[in-house]
Amino acid sequence: MPRHIRLTSHPGGAGRDAIPLCWGAPTAAERGPVVASPAEARQRNVIGSYSGAYAVYRALAVATRALARDHRPDLTDTAPAAQIEPRRQWADPAKIVSLDPWGHLVGEVFAEQIRAGNDIRPTIAITTARLAPPELRVLLDERHLHADGSVLLENGEIRVTKAAIDPVWHLPGV
Fold it and tell me: What are the boundaries of each domain within the chain?
């Protein structure tokens, strides 16, 4: 076993057996899965890394043997907490090259390929929350703001949706 951990997103030999991508296809299934796994370098079809900024922590866990080098996450119950409807721009290859717009639907759209052993992971995590900034409560009490019941609630909380996005670049010819 090598004593070093590779942090580069595109080591030598990357992409030799890349899973085909039809960037700009109208659906994730027609486009194909984004593969950004350093463990499956030959199948990689994008530049970038799963877990984005957290990839360094994964490397440290592997280096200290706290995590197996070939660990694959369990994607059970990882469906997005909110539905993000597809946009026309998602199917325009000239508009998006630095992220996978369908990255939050991987567990659903590519479940069969994942079960078959392909290392396909989400590149977007969508969560929802309620925040309670004290300033909003004051503004509501002073009637400078009015709760709409959808985003701003009567109790001063706001409903938010957060998307954590791992950058993955599809750069044909690179």
Answer: 28-73+82-124
